[in-house]
Amino acid sequence: MENLIQLVNKIQRACTALGDHGEESALPTLWDALPSIAVVGGQSSGKSSVLESIVGKDFLPRGSGIVTRRPLVLQLHKIDEGREYGEFMHLPRKKFTDFAAVRQEIADETDRETGRARGISSVPIHLSIYSPHVVNLTLVDLPGLTKVAVEGQPDSIVQDIENMVRAFIEKPNCIILAISPANQDLATSDAIKISREVDPKGERTFGVLTKIDLMDKGTDAVDILEGKAYKLNYPWIGVVNRSQADINKNVDMIAARRRENEYFASTPEYRHLTSRMGSVHLGKVLSKHLETVIKSRIPGLQSLISKTIIDLESELNRIGKPIAADTGGKLYLVMEICRNFDQIFKDHLDGIKPGGEKIYQVFDNQFPAALKRLQFDKHLSLDTVRKLITEADGYQPHLIAPEKGYRRLIESCLVSIRGPAEAAVDTVHGILKDLIQKSMNETVELKQYPTLRVELGSAAVESLERMREESKKATLLLVDMESGYLTVEFFRKLPQDPEKGGNPTHSLFDRYNDAYLRRIATTVLSYVNMVCGGLRHTIPKSVVYCQVREAKRSLLDHFFAEMGKKEGKQLASLLNEDPAIMQRRTNLSKRLELYRSAQSDIEAVAWDK
After folding, report:
1. Are residues 364 and 468 in the same domain?
2. Is 235 within the bounds of a domain?
3. 310 and 372 co-located in one domain
């Protein structure tokens, strides 16, 4: 069972090394899931003396005002024999056998984090003490609660300390060691007050009563120690610490413990409670309780660790692997990311992902609607027909049919189709650009490398521009071909009876009357509608062939060719990753290592009895 406390000690040290010490964090925190004992008390409550009595050594800074300004994670390790020593996590492999030096290092390390302005910090100091005279136990010594800021400290420090203490002890896995002096009214105890706020039923609180020997003559603390004055789930424990005179005289801690036992055994009011009083008993009770709590939490801890490992691995996969060092590895990474983008782009066009259907809507709705809006019948008004026919005849009127007039009328109508044709090309181009942007957003790796994203996006758009120009040429060529060569068969099939204007014996005057011109307009409109019907099918084919198909086939060909020519430094500049992502990957990797190590360690000792 002792291995369980050592396991928690190990995980707590690793958490602190990663900056995970129970504060708000975007990363999962293991610290909050670990059972711990937090020591809470007001200034001058005897909190430091209780800790030193449990350890059996003078090692905590002393003085006026707020002395403890950072949490101290005190990890006690019982050894069979040998000299007592302390070790700080921030000074690995350095053993402190002089506990006065331990006291000075706690003060110095506090100043390194908080400065000499006497501020506070929630970043803990880790101190491990190895001794034959301790029990395996971990305690978190928190700054003493106070009501007044001392000189040189901000007025907010009173509330800041209370907030820090509350943040530690409100967590359900925290066991509260509430230190209260017996020579003050328990109703005014800072420790009891804040403990009651976060643990109103007293299910996680151990009460420790100090300074029993300093109570006014004729008074005692029996009602409190027997749980009558203030009841907790666990029995109150009374301790008698060394007096300030004893501390000044460097009274041995072993002698102080012996004197403590003698006090309870020789005082009539407390004689019946002697077996469960004193700092030695307190240490044993806390050690046993901590072991029990740790063992009960192991199944939940294992579940949390397994889930978090999955979450961390998923997040690491999402943000991608670190960049390769060699040129070949960088080139491969660039090409792989670009291929992923290209495949997502194709998926949109092929209907695997949404977006490609908008191109069909252009051909099925927008382009035909644009052709209808041309309104050729209005263009072929009698005045327009008369004007073009007359101009085409020149000085000599046509003899049989106004062929030149027909051509001019047809050409004047067909040239207007160029507008909708170009608009179809541009609209499809816009859709393809949107799909490129959408595909880049969906390519997770591109979020990791913003420079590569910009370069890739520019190269893809440049390719689309080239394809648009080729598509316009091909599409407008289809329109121009219809103007350049008319379908003769259409006109041969026209009726030639006099009623239809085909009789050559009519006078020149008759050939320019309204009925005659109206029949010409009708014929031209029929022909233009026939051509539009054909172009409605051929223009989409041209656009798809020149833009959509080509984009699927060779969108990044030019970009790939340019990448192959780049040197290592140029590729590295493309893979200039966002520093925030690099830092997050490092943090996640370390956190994952911590959780995997914790998982292995817990499995090794979880059921060790």
Report:
1. yes
2. yes
3. no
Q: In terms of residue numbers, what domain contains 526?
A: 327-496+505-576
Q: Length of the chain, please?
A: 609
Whether residues 203 and 343 share a domain: the answer is no
User: Are 339 and 311 in the same domain?
Assistant: no
Contact between 199 and 172 under an 8 Å Cβ cutoff? The reply is: no
Pairing of strands 137-141, 72-78: antiparallel
Cβ-based neighbours of 98, under 8 Å, separated by 6 or more = none
Q: Three-state SS for 408?
A: helix
Residues 177 and 123 in one domain: yes
Per the structure, the count of domains in the chain is 2
The DSSP string of 363-400 is IIIIHHHHHHTT-HHHHT-HHHHHHHHHHHHTTS--SS
Residues 382 and 456 grouped into a single domain: yes
Please state, in angstroms and rounded to a whole number, the distance separating the CA atoms of residues 331 and 234. Answer: 66
Residues in Cβ contact with 379 at an 8 Å cutoff, skipping those fewer than 6 apart: 412, 413, 416
Indicate which CATH number applies to the domain containing 457.
Answer: 1.20.120.1240
CA angle 164, 167, 169 (to 5 degrees): 110
Residues in the chain where the model's pLDDT stays below 70:
1-3, 16-29, 31, 63-66, 116-118, 149-152, 325, 377-378, 386, 388, 390-401, 494-512, 605-609
Alpha-carbon torsion (161, 167, 172, 174), positive or negative: negative
What is the pTM for the complete model shown?
0.61
The set of residues, in sequence order, having a beta carbon less than 8 Å from that of 587 and lying 6+ positions away, is: 18, 27
Pairwise CA distance, residues 548 & 555, whole Å? 10
Same domain, yes or no: 405 and 521: yes
